[in-house]
Amino acid sequence: MEGGSEEGDVTARYDIGMKMRRQVLGDAHVDRAEAAKTAFDEPFQEMITEAAWGTVWASDGIAPRERSMLTLALLAATGNFEEIPMHVRATARTGASKRDVLEAFQHVAIYAGVPRANHALKLAKATYAEMEAGDE
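-> structure tokens emitted (136 positions)
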């Protein structure tokens, strides 16, 4: 590879990813995730930090607000509900409003199904209530 080693590129992508992950999810969340990491899942955690956070989220192709909306819609549409609260909390840092989240889930209802959107909205409502109560 001209201009640097592949290992150096991966290390740089990991560092960028960790910075982005902290920017979007917050230090407390990332610190808890890092503390829970074991030798078993460390390669997986490195991969998602490099790929999801160091490549996709770090891209300047779309703004963090829109990336949050896309992420929430995709999680809901595919039935991956476990990460919806985490990404709803992230909207406080990405600039996606409650209205933006509602609009994203309305798209899910039309294009992927009302039950998935309904469940995602239920999770978002509960998460916003926790955030407003200071129980983040």
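The chain has two domains: 1-59, 63-135.
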